[in-house]
Specification:
Elements (H helix, E strand, L loop, with lengths): L3 H13 L9 H9 L7 H10 L7 E4 L6 H8 L3 E6 L2 H14 L4 E4 L13 E6 L10 H11 E12 L36 H11 L2 E8 L20 H6 L14 E7 L1
Parallel strand pairs: 1-2, 1-4, 2-3, 4-5
Antiparallel strand pairs: 5-7, 6-7
């Protein structure tokens, strides 16, 4: 019987060469080159800039780096960046982009709950982006190792889907439908995923020794947050329809925060 992380790794290796290709188009990469800050939610980027007004020369690790948009952006802003992910194909595809542009980025295949290939006290800054926590079955191990690899007084910032979104499943905008109670955390599905609460994330951070300094609950930048990429009809939505998604009177779920960012230090 395959272990959960083996299933996740195999799945992401497959997805990296299929539907995930859309995150690596020339247009997407060109936009990051033109505006590195576009790789972040504006509020999260403000938190990063408050912690590091100048990223030049800083050592940054991005565990569960996924699309590597944040990795590319940090490099373009002058940082020395290590990209870690459990999927070899995700790293290979991102490494190909880095080589194409002559970007000196370190890529390491590693489990975010272990980070066994990374030494202790190495990084000024560790950043995790959207879509990390849903794949993590042991938050305490994840945060213990994030704490371990940070330098003394190092910074950790996370950005992810707000846990208040999790009980509602897919982004239905016509009515609110609860598919799981808030305290049902998983695992869910054949490819195991988890729906952690705010208390689970914060308690794991604090148990690791991280000092939580600031928290922001944010709304979607635009209506594309509510678009289901698997539905072809959603690609034909008008600008007005997309704008309406952000109006809580028309879309009840828009009354809840969609994103969460937390700033902590070692």
């Amino acid at each position: 019987m395959k272990e959960p992380m083996d299933i996740i790794k195999r799945s992401w290796d497959e997805w990296s060469d299929s539907w995930y290709v859309g995150y690596r188009t020339e247009e997407v990469i060109a936009n990051i080159i033109k505006q590195p800050e576009s790789a972040f939610h504006p509020t999260t980027f403000s938190m990063i800039m408050k912690a590091f007004p100048d990223l030049r020369g800083k050592r940054i690790c991005v565990p569960s780096s996924g699309d590597n948009h944040a990795v590319f952006a940090f490099h373009l802003m002058g940082a020395h960046v290590t990209s870690c992910d459990i999927s070899e194909r995700q790293l290979e595809n991102s490494s190909d982009i880095a080589k194409r542009y002559g970007w000196d980025i370190e890529f390491i295949c590693d489990d975010t709950m272990k980070l066994g290939s990374i030494g202790s006290g190495v990084y000024d800054f560790v950043y995790t982006s959207n879509g990390v926590h849903v794949w993590i079955h042991d938050l305490n191990s994840m945060y213990s190792n994030i704490h371990r690899i940070l330098k003394p007084n190092g910074t950790y910032i996370m950005y992810d889907i707000h846990p208040f979104m999790r009980p509602f499943g897919t982004h239905s905008t016509d009515r609110i439908k609860v598919v799981n109670p808030y305290d049902s955390t998983g695992p869910f599905g054949e490819i195991p995923t988890y729906k952690w609460r705010i208390q689970d994330i914060l308690n794991a951070m604090m148990s690791s020794g991280l000092n939580v300094k600031h928290l922001e609950e944010m709304f979607a930048v635009d209506g594309t947050f509510w678009v289901d990429e698997s539905k072809s009809e959603d690609s034909r939505l008008s600008d007005q329809e997309l704008e309406d998604f952000c109006n809580w009177e028309l879309n009840p779920l828009a009354a809840l925060p969609q994103w969460l960012s937390i700033y902590a230090t070692k």
